[in-house]
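Subject: Interface between my chains keeps coming out wrong

I've been trying for a while to get a sensible model of this assembly. When I model each chain on its own everything looks fine, but I need the whole thing in one frame so I can look at the contacts. Pasting all components below, labels as-is. Any help appreciated, I'm running out of ideas.
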Amino acid sequence: MTTSRIAEQQAVRWSLNTKSARRLTQAVSYIVLTAGSLFTIFPFLWMLSTSLKSTQYMLQFPPQWIPDPITFQHYNDVFRLLPLAQGFANSFFIAIVGTIGVLFASSLAGYSFAKLEFPGRDRIFILMMLTMMIPGAVLLIPQFLLFRSLGWVNTFNPLIIPSLFGAIYETFFFRQFFRTIPNELIDAAKIDGASFFTIYWRIVVPLAKPVFATLAVLAFMWRWNDYMGPLIYLNDIQKQTVPVMISTFQSQYLTAYGLMMAASVLSILPIIVLFFFMQRYFVEGITLTGLKG
Amino acid sequence: MAAHAQRLLTGWLPRSAMKRREALWGYLFVLPLILGFAIFAFGPMLASIGISFTDWEILTTPKFIGLDNYIKLITRDRLVGIAFGNTLYLMLGIPIGMACSLLLALAMNQRIRGISIYRTIYFLPVVSSVVAVSVLWRWIFNQEFGLLNVMLRYLGIQGPLWLGDAAWAKPALIIMGVWGGLGFNMLLYLAALQGVPRELTEAATIDGAGAWQRFRHVTWPFLTPTTFFVLVTSIIGTFQTFAQIHLMTRGNVSGAIGGGPQWATLTVIYYLWLNAFNYYDMGYAAALAWILGIVILIFTIFQFAASRRWVFYSE
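Reply #2:
Try treating it as a single job with all components included. I did that and got this:
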């Protein structure tokens, strides 16, 4: 037997092995993924099922997995007992204004750090990055005292105004992206006599649309889901955001599970709808967050 | 004289009018960020050092008491030790969650159909608010009719009280934490896996490396930066566990506080919150915040130092 024959046989055996091995790996992968996704989605289905089930069928074993009859009573009750429409308006207002503010201020700063030249530019940037090391816990109390002395407690100000100054985290990502824009584009506009703001608004922003979308989705989600901020600063139920409304509701109707589940379904609905339409940007955003390290 | 002042004022700016204009616009554009930082972060941070040396019950005038808050916190307040202990216990969930996410990412990285469906499902907990998720899990952990004990009952097991039992409350929080973090960490690992050069794994296969060897010696080094990142951020995140405790461990009496039963779920940040917003003891809470901040910093520095031994950067 010649050596080439042996090599050929080995190659055939090897490819057969890898083919069946690949099939096995794939089968195992499907099993792992399906098991994991069942574990993940089951609580949500349980939430939905509970919210549509009348109370009398809730406390029984074996449980009614699919509610029969389906009832929307709990949803009616939630709207009757809570000023939820007002809550949604509050949540949307805080999340949208905060998101627009933080994106505008951060992208302007990111553009300046990436494309304009001024003495101390990089040193200032590194200094700002270092400050991200300050743990949020340390700021909790002095910020509360500051906002209290400004008379901002029980207003939206503490939840919105800091965003209008921009955030270091977002600035960092804008700067990263803006650095990849060729200088020629900007220089050409400069020669045409465009102001620095015009360059930002007419050239830089349109080029960075995907980055804006990704960071907007994240910024909106963080603000919509924020719990501690509104909990500390908003007292009147009329002013609260949806999550905090639900949590105050919880202390009164702790064991009214149908009611609580209906309220929870309603509170995550807007984000899930947003997620379905902007899935790509969510995924990019999460990956981006991870690339920070 | 005026010329001298003029030079002091603007002498450090570039000479040419064009460059000077650019520099001024540059400063203007970063000004809000720097102002915001000074007003909402740096100023408060400095103030909080001062506050931590005072006895200040919000409506009284602050009284300087030196290091008393710190001494009391470290030597006489047993809840501080309990809170740090509980927080460390909750960190057991981190390696469990990371292993599960890695396994899912490895599966996802095979050529799989329906990847977007799986991804959507794993993302649901990531995008849901902590309030909805906590309220949901409180119901799942219900002793008699909660999902978990119902499932156990099918298997003939009488499930524990979960959140009502000092021994089971922390494992309950860990289960919920693993469930909530799965999708996020899985996606980070998936991104890292896609950065592993195919030629390397193929070369290892031809050289006769088994699946485990391939993973251990070829794939894993490329995953270490992600593992490091997830580890650092998860530890910081666990130190700041608040909402779950507040939402899942309070009784249904108005004004009831969480952290129970028997302080089994008291975390550092929850204790801080109790001191500040329940007992209005601002000085004491500020001192606790600094202790927590320093502990987090030490943990982080230690991890960065240790990372040189095991984290591999390809560039």
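Reply #3:
Confirming on my end. The beta strands of chain B are 54-55, 63-64.
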